[in-house]
Amino acid sequence: MNVVETARDLATAFAERAEQHDREASFPKADFDDLRAAGLLGLMVPERLGGNGCDFATYARVAATLAEGSAATALVFNMHCSVTGALAATPDDLARAVGAPESFFAWRDRVLADAANGALYLVAMSERGAGSRFSAMTTAYEAEGDGWRVRGHKTFCSGAGHADAYAVVARNGDSVSQFLVPAGDGIRVEQTWDPLGMRATASNDVHLDVHVGRDALLGGVEGLALLLARVSPQWLVASYAAVYVGIARAAIACAATQLTERGLHGLPAVRARLGRADAATQAAWLATLDAASRVDAAPGDPATNRAVYRAKLLAGDTAADVAGSMLEACGTSATRRGNPLERLFRDARCGALQPATSDVCADWLGVAALGLDPDEEAAVPRW
Ligand SMILES: Cc1cc2nc3c(=O)[nH]c(=O)nc-3n(C[C@H](O)[C@H](O)[C@H](O)COP(=O)(O)OP(=O)(O)OC[C@H]3O[C@@H](n4cnc5c(N)ncnc54)[C@H](O)[C@@H]3O)c2cc1C
After folding, report:
1. Ligand 1: which atom is nearest the Cα of residue 154?
2. pTM for the whole thing?
3. Which of 33, 46, 59, 360 is deepest in the core (most CB within 10 A)?
4. Nearest C-alpha to atom 29 of ligand 1 is from which residue?
């Protein structure tokens, strides 16, 4: 069975658990046990380290399929893949060129091999007040003994408390860096998550006052975080796109079932809503696949980055539009708590909010369309 077929099987089980985790805003632990048992936590890990060695386009197919079963599980899985995918895809010569010490490569391989064996890595980047803007973050780091001390407060950390390690963005003066901080002493999770949508991501607050070893500095060099966000935005921007396409597909399937069961499928207005939703979802998917294949062929290329921002904008907005339209087609009964369309409608609403937000993507693309540098031309810093 290939990884997409495995994801399809898992999505069926995830769909059965989704309602309860949404209601409780609780982490879908059994879903991650299933992903671990199926070997999918090694999706982006090179085969030489025991993983599946998949490319970005395969990631997109797997993520969209998982999201058809549980949007929240697929979103947390996206966080894990963004850490492992970015680590796996950074070429050794590039890492050496920016100054990575030799010890970094052995450490990176160990981290990736652990993922193939079931370790889960999540992202503690965002902060209250700063959102995901690296340049506004207050979490701080400094050299301490044989490594670093990282202190600060993070919010919206999907899966907080369930990870083996967290990718943490922190600053030391003007230098913004990323660390992989192992779970354990010095990390405290505060249960703050009771939101509108994507409730089962359990994206709680994380407080850090922790010593980490020298190799925990991602890339082995200080000050790389902003550079990496610019040259390889795919894991910060486009990896969400597939998840939101999966939500749109799930909303259409759910609406088709409910409309048929209720005998409303003969209504022309209802059919037209399904038809428009189908076309819009497929368009967002093609934009996502275009971005993904460009990421695999020419990562960091200006045309690739443009495709990345387009995919995120289209998928985020399309999911919300499609889920809203499907809810309307199915009527008020679909808005009852416990109806899967009601959950999908709320989950879909989060797509435009995740970084880069739809408004930020649109601004970035507009600046590019004007022939200007979209990373430089911004009312406030992009990251
Ligand atoms: C379901 C869910 C799960 C998440 N999981 C994680 C996670 O695991 N880890 C994590 O670190 N974070 C996570 N986040 C947080 C997310 O990554 C963002 O950091 C956060 O949503 C952005 O912060 P904010 O919503 O406060 O918006 P802000 O970024 O503060 O934006 C507020 C407003 O300002 C606008 N804006 C911001 N910057 C610009 C700009 N440069 N140009 C023009 N307009 C701009 C935005 O469009 C928006 O309208 C999650 C968020 C959600 C919804």
Report:
1. 11
2. 0.96
3. 59
4. 131
